[in-house]
Sequence to fold (797 residues):
Amino acid sequence: MENDIFAPRKNHITYNSMKKILLFSIALLAGVFTLFAQPIYNADGIRLYHTPSQEELDWAKSQGLTITPKVPTSPPSGQLRPIAEFEPAEAVLVRYPFGIPVNLIAEMSQDVIVITIVASTGQQTTVLSQYNAAGVKTANCKFLIANTDTYWTRDYGPWFMAINNSTVGMFDFTYNRPARVYDNQINSQLAPYLSSAAGGGIPIERYTSTLVLTGGNYMNDGISQGFSTTLVLQENTGLTEQQIKNQYLQYFGIDQQHFIADPIVPYDNIQHIDCSSKLLAPNKVLVDSVSPTNPNFNKFQAVANYFRTRTSSWGMPYKVVRVFAPGATSSNPITPYSNSLILNKKVFVPVNPTTNANDLAALAVYEQAMPGYQIIPINYGSWLNTDALHCRTHEIADRCMLYINHQPLFGDIDNNGPITFNTELYSYCDHTIYSDSVIVYVKSNGGEYEGYNMVKTGEHTWETAVTLPEGSVEYYIFAADQSGRRECHPYIGAPDPHKFTLLGNAPNIPALSLNKTTSSVILNGINLVKDTIKISNIGTADLTFEIVEIDFPVKFTVTPEDGTLTPNNSQMLILTYDFNDGKSEEFAGTFKLLSNDPLQPEVEITLHATVFAPVLSLDKTSSAVTSEGVAVIKDTITISNLGTADLTFEVTALDFHDMLSLSPLFGVVQPNNSQKIILSYDFANVEKGEYSGSFKLLSNAPTHPETEISLHAIQNYVGIKETNRPATYIYPNPASDKINIIFNGENSTKANIYNILGVQIKETALTKGNNTIDIKTLPNGIYFIKIEGSAFKFVKQ
Fold:
């Protein structure tokens, strides 16, 4: 009994809460476009009720329709766990014609995608018109065109499981309504729709088994336990109870499947567990209560006692929340309060068209049991005690959820030193989890929350140790990833945290805390970058530390290399990355942090650096032109950036005759792009002869900060005597890639290249004018070129 949360039957909602609820109710009433759910008939005029009537069953028999188990698929392979209703949802599934007010759809569309099942594009147009009129956020609306029989999407919709904490799978069962063939087929159409671009484009696999089930008769805790009424056993008589449980284990990872006698029978034979009970968290369950004079009072007490005597997957007893539902075994009054929908941080509770005292008391129960959630009453005239908004909606699990797997600390714990908080984190779509976002927020003895960064200790594991005083402790874990998802454990975070009690004061010992154990930097066009790691002593004695075993492929330092921290003090470690060569590549390494913390004497810090640097490439490092009477001759030098960062360049130190102009003199070249420098030689007023010079090309490329470009020009009008200039001119000298030979002879000749030992290694033909010889393959050294009896020396470097 001590774990129960009993709600008073009178209204205990605060004035502000009541005002908020009433105003919201009025707003909903003012905008209700579908006041009452219309009766549902099949093509032969047979009315379809939530619980199949004898007329429907007889009709199905006359049509040869029987419950035939679907062909099973192999179960998912790997580690499985069921996904609970109170976990993150990306969408909600409804069907048109509706069994819910459009206002509810408008509210749900503010936060998630609303997938509406319609029979045709014409129905889709009709629905969109209603949605726009009701203020539905149509940008969050999608449509699945498929035939259905009814609007009870909860009963025939899919169940979800996590596979290896990386993907979400869908479970499809045989619907226990033989006359509702279209409903039974909807999951086979929903799976490919969700996998398509229209449905989000994230593949989801559909799994089937031989079980005959209905969705309203199922709930799970998101870990390893599931709950249904004994209806499952009655409808699967070909299987033993253990064989049924084995399928829950094989397809969901549920190793404790509970079958509970329905407390409403014989007043309603629906026997769906969501008509009398609802899991609000892995350790918290809401169960209807009725008056002691109610004929089924003991049955409802038995359900509450069943949970009260069981242990949750967190290892603690269930907290049993009771909500007074006097109509649970009769048609009046309408009190379907357990048939609510948890959709992320909102809880939609079905209430009467005009909120009455029972409704207000039920809403107070939800506010007390689920602090931090927005409790939203949904006023409607067509709710039934065993058929309300939970039966007529179905959440779609977030296939890219950020999942926090944590075993809470609870009960009394001896205070023997720092308390270790640990967790596992998984992004199902493999989004990067921000390392500095993983924080445990801790509050002691009713004080304020203080955040402690958790450190990554494995592929998916994180932990930190915190020294705390004796007394009560409340805490929750927070994490965020690159998709924008921000999650807590427990799900709602600070308003409803985990709790435990520390007994005694911790001994005086040092306790190491690091804000991160990974340093990752990016160098974008620079050589030097610094990062920091905050080392803190959260213990009660001096902490000594030392940096050892630095293993990194380029220059890297950590300062200080050692030190002492008094309790409740911190020190920044400065990590300096120095990349002199500036190549575009990635580097990885580690170093170790030793300390006198008895729980963490050695911590390995991982290092990662990505260098984005510009790489200069020139098509040539010289320019040579000869004018045969042409007034202006243009040449080009192409600057290419083969790197991964912007390349800046500047022309400077131009030393040449003023006939030459260059453009542009500076600029920026993006990665994988080029820029031409245009050299314009104006010979209009230049005397006959040869002109030589150079300029310097400066850049931010680490490997080529300065390159000298040699220049040569010849003014050679017809009639110039050959004796006015040398017959042969070689440049640049020294050279690395190529040399240019300007040959002024009238006839072609040969140039022979010899090494310093006199061995000929190359021969090439020369024609009048500029000749280029490739010398890249020549070893560095001194060479001689013999041309028509003359020898010229050049240096390859």
